[in-house]
Amino acid sequence: MSEDYIIEMLHITKEFPGIKANDDITLQLRRGEIHALLGENGAGKSTLMSVLFGLYQAEKGIIKKDGQEVQIKDPNDANRLGIGMVHQHFKLVECFTVLDNIILGVEDTKHGFLEKEAARKKVMALSEKYGLRVDPDAYVSDISVGMQQRVEILKMLYRDNEILIFDEPTAVLTPQEIDELMEIMRGFKKEGKSILFITHKLAEIMAVADRCTVLRKGRYMGTKDIAGTTKEELSRMMVGRDVQFSFEKKECKPGETLLSVKDLVVPSKVHKNNAVKGVSFDVHAGEIVCVAGIEGNGQSELVFGITGLEKASAGSIRLCGKDITNASIRVRSRDGMAHIPEDRHKYGLVLDYSLEQNLVLQRYWQPEFEEHGVIKAEAVRKYSEGLIDKYDIRSGQGPLTPARAMSGGNQQKAIIAREIDRNPSILVAVQPTRGLDVGAIEFIHHSLVGERDAGKGVLLISLELDEVMNLSDRILVMYEGEIVGEFRPKDTDVQELGLYMSGAKRNTAGKEGIAV
To answer: Is the pLDDT assigned to residue 18 strictly greater than 90?
Structure first.
């Protein structure tokens, strides 16, 4: 009976140019349950939640709250109905403080001036109650993505929302933060809050959800009780075939040194200390070296230094024997370095360019695509169509689709296609499967191992310990800007890596690392 349901979305259809994002979908959320929404990248999950939150208006269908039909024309309507949302790409103002972001839109004023003291007390009480520790005076531009997510959750709680939508909440979190978030969600459920939880990670659904609704290519595939289903069944519903959760790769046969980092020091933007403190390691042809660590321990700055996004203050970087320490990004790119960045919106794509323009961003000046300063549109179109087909990049208008209009996973596939297709010597891949579904993860893992088997070097930075263990030939653990341990996957386990990642253990004896 409908009174069991706090929210019902009945026969929702939402269209964009060239694509039916939601095709007659019905979703019913029970009071006090954690309901997972599962589907491939571009399956329509975020679109459906954006309809519920008032960011989009559906062409067909109705929404009911507590059995009564409601109109949700914008997020203010959603908030008035007690619906809050943590978006996959956070909606925060970077130059505002944490406190200002939380109260933005629901500020208390007195004689035209902001009254922040009561708001600060409420925020600190909420942060204490739910274990969401934040510094209210820190600027959003200076805090980690894990911390930014806490700010988004506190925004919802500050507005006293009872229906909480989490869109890919764990895509940017460390294993420890994911465990914390699961506990927080269980706490919300105990309090009678109802949660809609969009994710690609089957293990999380099995751990925390009560029921799961599966979408595929914009259509409703069914709803399952978690107690009566398996990861394998859910993945089949999601992608329409069996998925390999792990795979055997050939024994590593390292060749020449392709990337050599010596005593690298990279300053921190956030504090006075250096973020990377004298780090040294090599990556050889035919191996995947993974840098593991809890977010905020210098991995991002290490990548910035290697790829040229930040200037190193000391040390050296050699690519295929050539000193590139002070080289420009284009020179590094031309000399054989490819980069799949951590933040695909900030560093990976020009969101207002079309998909085809983004696919030639690293090559548009080459004779294949340019003549006398004019880009050859036909060559760009043909090349991009080939990559779209090869990498199964899904978009409403093919090569003409604005990158901004694509799902997060398809944006990621576009970056991976562009970088791998340039035939680099060394591929720096930072969180390459972040926010991707099991089918896309399988494809990307095979792509990375394919690069390694073709004699390329892969430097992988990942927070996903399963991914680290599955893909790496060598693992470097980074803690507080230093390499504190080096392992072979077969000689360690997730628990031991966790101890090194948290700083509880340190292997300084093996400073020179494992011989290859």
So the answer is: no
Reported as a single tens digit per residue, the pLDDT across 211-268 is 999 998 889 999 999 999 988 888 888 877 766 656 677 888 899 999 999 999 999 8
Question: Which of 36-50, 51-65, 138-152, 416-430 is the least confident region?
Answer: 138-152
Rounded Cα distance between 47 and 42, Å, is: 9
DSSP 170-238: TTT--HHHHHHHHHHHHHHHHTT-EEEEEES-HHHHHHH-SEEEEEETTEEEEEEEGGG--HHHHHHHH
What's the pLDDT tens digit per position in 384-402?
999 999 988 888 888 999 9
CB atoms within 10 A of CB 426: 22
Q: b vs e for 180-213, b when ≥16 Cβ sit within 10 Å of the residue's Cβ?
A: bbbebbeebbeeebbbbbbbbbbebbbebbebbb
User: Long-range CB contacts (< 8 A, 24+ apart) of 418-423?
Assistant: 418/358, 418/359, 418/360, 418/361, 418/362, 418/387, 419/338, 419/339, 419/340, 419/362, 420/338, 420/447, 420/451, 421/387, 422/333, 422/338, 422/362, 422/363
**CATH 3.40.50.300 domain residues, the chain:** 2-239, 244-336+424-516
CA dihedral 393, 394, 396, 400 (to 10 degrees): 0
**Helices (H), ranges, 54-165:** 75-80, 98-103, 117-129, 145-158
Q: Is the pLDDT of residue 497 over 60?
A: yes
pLDDT tens per residue, range 278-295: 999 999 999 999 999 877
Shortest CA distance to 51 belongs to which of 218, 211, 237? 218
Q: What percent of the chain has pLDDT over 90?
A: 48
> CATH number for the 244-336+424-516 domain, one of 3.40.50.720, 3.30.110.170, 2.60.40.1880, 3.40.50.300?
3.40.50.300
Q: What is the pTM of this model?
A: 0.67
Helices H / strands E in the chain, number of each: 16, 24
Task: Please list the alpha-helical segments (H only) found in 35-74.
Answer: 45-52
* Nearest partner of 121 among 104, 94, 102, judged by Cα: 102
What type of residue is 22? N
Measured on CA atoms in the order 14, 19, 24, 29, is the torsion positive or negative? Answer: negative
Looking at CATH, the fold of the domain delimited by 2-239 is given as: Rossmann fold (3.40.50)
CA–centroid distance for 376 within its chain: 34
